[in-house]
Design goal:
heterodimer, A: mainly alpha, 12 helices, globular, B: alpha/beta, D-Maltodextrin-Binding Protein, domain 2, six-stranded mixed beta sheet, four-stranded mixed beta sheet
C-alpha cells in the first residue's frame, strides 16, 4: 500500500535545506539606504563630538574626550539658544495646533466654495521656507511693507521695523512660521475627521448631545492619535527650524532668535568648529529623544486603539 | 464587575511598535540634521597636458557672471583645446562651499579667492603656491605691489603667494549730491561735516535718514573702517595687543554707533550689504559707506549726476588718511587639479591687461594689472579714480587687518556680530564691545604665533 505523503509547502525564497535569503535580499536596498543616509551621518556626528575638529586649525585636531561637552555646559549661548528653542517650539506647536484644528473643523463642513477654501487653507504648505521668508520680509520691511502704508495713513511711525526690535521680533517670526505651519495640522486633522463615522454624531444627536459635547466626546478622542503624532513631528521640525529664522532674522537681533540648530549652524559653518558643533547636535539629539519618549508615554500614543 | 478584554500579543506588540517607530523617526530626524564634517583628503593633482576641460568657481556668481562669460569666451577662442566649465557660487556661500569641497572632495581647478578667507584655505592645504609661476610667466612685474603684499600677508606663509590678485576694493562714502544741495550742505569731506549731514538729512516723520548703518552680516568690517578712519590710529597691533580698544577707537565707535535710530532707520540692525545698498538706493537716505562694488547700482538708481563717492575723510584736516586694508580678490590654483597647466593658462589670461581691465570696469573696482590701472575708463569713473588715488596716496596709512588669522572670520563675524547689535541697541557700551573684540583678537593672535613656533 502506497502512502501518500503530503509535501510540506516550501517557504518562499527558501531552497531545500538553505537559508531564507529572499526576504533579506528584498529588504537590503532599504537597509543600505538607511545605513548610508541615517546610520553613517548619525555615527559620524557622534564620532566628531568626541574630537577637536576645526578645519582652519588642523594643528588642534585630535581626540577631545568629553571636552566639547564640558565646554557647552559653561557656554551661555548654548543655554540661551536652548531656552529660546523650547519657547519657540512650545508657542509654535500650540498655536499651529489650535488654528489648524479650527480650520480643519471649518473646511470639514459643507458650504458653497468649500473646495476653494480648502485649497486656500492648504496653499501656504506648498510654499518653500525661503520663499515664505521673502514674503514676510517684504511685509515687515519698513520702507515697502505694511508699516510704511500704515504710517502713510497716519497709523504708527515711519521706520518701524518689527524684526529689528528685540521686543517684537519673536512674535513677528512666530506669525510668519504660523502662516506656514497651520496647514500641516489642518491637512492631517481634516483627513482624520473624515474617517469619523457619521453614525456616531447622529446617535449622539438623538441622545441630546450638543455640538460642544459631540466635539469633546467624539471628535477629540478620535483625533487623539493624529494630534499626538502631528504635534510630535511638528515639535521636532520646529526645534530643528533653521531655514525660516536664518533667512528672516539671522538669529538676531543680538541673538534674540537663535535656536539651538541655528547656533549649531553658526558654530560649524561660520566658526568652522565641527567638533563642538557635533557635540551641540548630540546634546540636541538626546534632549529630543528624551522628550519624545516622555511625550509618547504620557500621552499613551496608540494605546486605546490597539 | 468590569470585564477587561485581554490584549492579544499582536495588539500589544503594535502598541509598542507605534511609539517606537515614532521615536525612531524623531531621533533620526534630529541627528541627521546636524550631520556634518568629514576628512580632508590628501592633495593629489598634476600638471596635465595643458588641454581638456577645467572647472572654474566664480566666488561672486550671479553678479559677475556676464563678465566672466565674456572672459571665458575670449579664452576659449585663444585656446581652442581648453574648455572652461563655469560654476557661479553666490558670494555669501563661497566659504562654506569651499570648506565642504575641501572636506568631501570636488574642488575646482581654479577658483575666485578673496584675502578674507585665503588663510583658511591655505591652512587646509587646498591651494597651490603660485609665486614661482608668476615669476616665470607673463604676469611677472605686472601685478600691483600693494595687492601682492596683501595677498602675501593674508596667506600667512611669509613671502609665498597662494592666489593671483585680480582686483581690490576700497571703502567709499557714497552720498546723494542732490539731497546735499537741497539742504545746503557741504560734501562730507571731514568728520564734523559727515555727522552734521547725517543729522540734518534725517527727518523721521518723513521717512528720511542721513545715513544707513550696517548692523547685520559684515557689520564689524564697516565699524573698523569708521573707527580707524576717525581715530587716526594707523596700526592694528601694538606689540602683541590689538589697537581695537585704544581710547581713540572707542571714542570713534561710540560716535558712530550713536547714529543708529537717530540718523538711520531702525531696520538697519539686520542690514547685510545687499539690504543696506537696497535701502540706500530706495531714495530715502543721504549717505552710505560701502565699497566701489555698488557704484553701478547707485548710478542705476539715481543717475551719475546725483551720486558722488569719496574716500573716508582723514581723522582731522591735513592728517594722512588711515584706512583698514580691504580684501583683495584673486584667483587660486587648486592643489587637487589634474590639469594645472591649463588652469594656470586661464589664470594668466584672466589677469592679463585686457581681461583684468574689462573685469574691473564692469565690477567698478581697482585692477591689479598695473598696465590696466592707466586705462581711460578709470579717468571717467570719478569714484574709482578717487579710490585709486587714495590707495596710491603716499601719505595714506593702511591699517593691515589680520586676515591671516584662521580665527579672523569667526571673530569678526559669528562671534561678535550679535554683540555689535547689542551695542547699537544700547545693551552694551562701546568700551565693552571693543574690549570683547580685542580679547578675542589677542587670543587668536597668540594662538597663531604659538602654532608657528612649533
Amino acid at each position: 500500500m502506497a502512502l501518500a505523503v503530503a509535501k510540506k509547502p516550501r517557504r518562499p525564497g527558501r531552497r531545500a535545506g538553505g537559508p531564507a535569503r529572499l526576504p533579506y535580499l528584498l529588504i537590503s536596498p532599504a537597509v543600505l539606504l538607511m545605513a548610508g543616509f541615517l546610520a553613517y551621518p548619525m555615527l559620524s556626528v557622534l564620532y566628531y563630538s568626541l574630537q577637536h575638529y576645526n578645519v582652519t586649525k588642523p594643528w588642534r585636531n585630535g581626540f577631545a574626550g568629553l571636552d566639547n561637552f564640558s565646554a557647552l555646559l559653561a557656554d551661555d549661548l548654548f543655554w540661551q539658544s536652548l531656552v529660546f528653542s523650547a519657547r519657540w517650539v512650545g508657542v509654535e506647536v500650540s498655536l499651529q495646533l489650535v488654528f489648524g484644528l479650527a480650520l480643519a473643523l471649518i473646511v470639514n463642513q459643507s458650504f458653497i466654495g468649500r473646495g476653494l477654501s480648502r485649497a486656500m487653507v492648504f496653499s501656504p504648505w506648498a510654499v518653500s521656507g525661503v520663499l515664505t521668508t521673502t514674503i514676510w520680509i517684504l511685509l515687515y520691511n519698513p520702507s515697502t511693507g505694511v508699516s510704511r502704508y500704515l504710517a502713510d495713513a497716519g497709523i504708527g511711525s515711519y521706520g518701524t521695523s518689527v524684526l529689528s526690535d528685540p521686543d517684537t521680533v519673536f512674535w513677528a517670526a512666530v506669525l510668519a512660521e504660523l502662516w506656514r505651519g497651520v496647514p500641516f495640522f489642518a491637512i492631517l486633522i481634516l483627513a482624520d475627521l473624515q474617517s469619523i463615522p457619521r453614525d456616531l454624531y447622529e446617535a449622539a444627536s438623538v441622545d441630546g448631545a450638543g455640538r460642544v459635547r459631540q466635539f469633546l466626546h467624539i471628535t477629540l478622542p478620535h483625533l487623539k492619535d493624529a494630534i499626538i503624532l502631528s504635534t510630535l513631528l511638528r515639535a521636532v521640525w520646529e526645534f530643528n527650524n533653521v531655514d525660516l529664522l536664518y533667512t528672516l532674522t539671522g538669529g538676531g537681533p543680538a541673538g534674540a532668535t537663535t535656536t539651538l540648530p541655528l547656533y549649531v549652524a553658526n558654530t560649524g559653518i561660520e566658526g568652522h568648529d565641527f567638533g563642538y558643533a557635533s557635540a551641540l547636535t548630540t546634546v540636541a539629539f538626546v534632549i529630543l529623544l528624551f522628550c519624545s519618549i516622555l511625550y509618547l508615554r504620557l500621552s499613551k500614543f496608540g494605546g486605546e486603539r490597539s | 464587575m468590569t470585564t477587561r478584554t485581554p490584549r492579544t500579543r499582536t495588539a500589544g506588540r503594535r502598541a509598542i511598535r507605534r511609539p517606537a517607530a515614532a521615536v525612531a523617526l524623531v531621533t533620526a530626524l534630529a541627528l541627521t540634521a546636524g550631520a556634518c564634517g568629514g576628512d580632508s583628503g590628501e592633495a593629489a593633482g598634476g600638471e596635465g597636458d595643458g588641454k581638456g576641460t577645467i572647472e572654474f568657481w566664480d566666488n561672486n556668481g550671479g553678479v559677475r557672471t556676464p563678465v566672466w562669460k565674456k572672459i571665458i569666451a575670449a579664452f576659449e577662442k585663444k585656446y581652442p583645446d581648453i574648455t572652461v566649465k563655469y560654476v557661479p557660487v553666490p558670494i555669501t556661500d563661497v566659504q562654506s562651499k569651499y570648506d565642504t569641497a575641501i572636506a568631501g572632495g570636488g574642488l575646482p581647478d581654479v577658483g575666485g579667492v578673496g584675502t578674507a578667507y585665503l588663510a583658511n584655505m591655505v591652512a587646509q592645504n587646498a591651494l597651490e603656491p603660485v609665486g614661482d609661476r608668476i615669476e616665470s610667466g607673463a604676469l611677472k612685474g605686472k601685478l600691483s605691489p600693494g595687492m601682492v603684499e596683501s595677498v602675501r600677508a593674508a596667506g600667512g606663509e611669509g613671502e609665498e603667494m597662494f592666489s593671483v590678485p585680480t582686483s581690490a576694493n576700497q571703502s567709499v562714502l557714497w552720498y546723494r549730491e542732490d539731497l546735499f544741495d537741497q539742504a545746503g550742505l557741504d560734501a562730507p569731506e571731514d568728520w564734523d561735516a559727515f555727522y552734521e549731514a547725517a543729522e540734518e538729512l534725517s527727518d523721521q516723520g518723513r521717512n528720511r535718514f542721513g545715513f544707513t548703518i550696517r548692523g547685520g552680516a559684515g557689520s564689524i568690517a564697516q565699524a573698523l573702517d569708521m573707527m580707524y578712519a576717525q581715530s587716526g590710529v594707523d596700526t592694528f597691533w601694538k606689540g602683541d595687543k590689538t589697537t581695537v580698544n585704544a581710547p581713540e577707537n572707542v571714542e570713534a565707535l561710540e560716535r558712530y554707533a550713536g547714529l543708529y535710530k537717530k540718523a538711520t532707520p531702525a531696520a538697519d540692525l539686520n542690514n547685510d550689504f545687499t539690504k543696506m545698498v537696497a535701502q540706500f538706493d530706495s531714495g530715502d537716505i543721504g549717505m552710505l559707506l560701502h565699497n566701489l562694488g555698488s557704484y553701478t547700482d547707485h548710478v542705476k538708481a539715481f543717475g551719475e549726476e546725483k551720486i558722488a563717492g569719496i574716500p573716508l575723510p582723514p581723522s582731522r584736516k591735513g592728517a594722512p588718511r588711515t584706512v583698514p586694508s580691504q580684501p583683495v580678490d584673486g584667483l587660486g590654483l587648486f592643489r587637487d587639479s589634474d590639469n594645472k597647466a591649463a588652469a594656470w593658462k586661464f589664470i594668466e589670461f584672466a589677469a592679463s591687461h585686457e581681461m583684468n581691465s574689462l573685469w574691473n570696469e564692469e565690477a567698478g573696482s581697482i585692477p591689479s594689472n598695473t598696465d590696466a590701472a592707466g586705462d581711460a575708463w578709470i579717468e571717467e569713473a570719478a569714484p574709482v579714480k578717487a579710490a585709486v588715488e587714495a590707495v596710491n596716496d603716499p601719505r595714506a596709512k593702511t591699517v593691515q587687518l589680520p586676515y591671516y588669522l584662521p580665527d579672523w572670520n569667526s571673530v569678526s563675524k559669528a562671534d561678535n556680530e550679535p554683540a555689535f547689535q547689542k551695542l547699537l541697541l544700547g545693551e552694551m557700551t562701546a568700551q565693552e564691545f571693543a574690549d570683547r573684540l580685542a580679547k578675542d583678537l589677542n587670543e587668536a593672535q597668540a594662538e597663531w604665533k604659538e602654532q608657528r613656533k612649533e
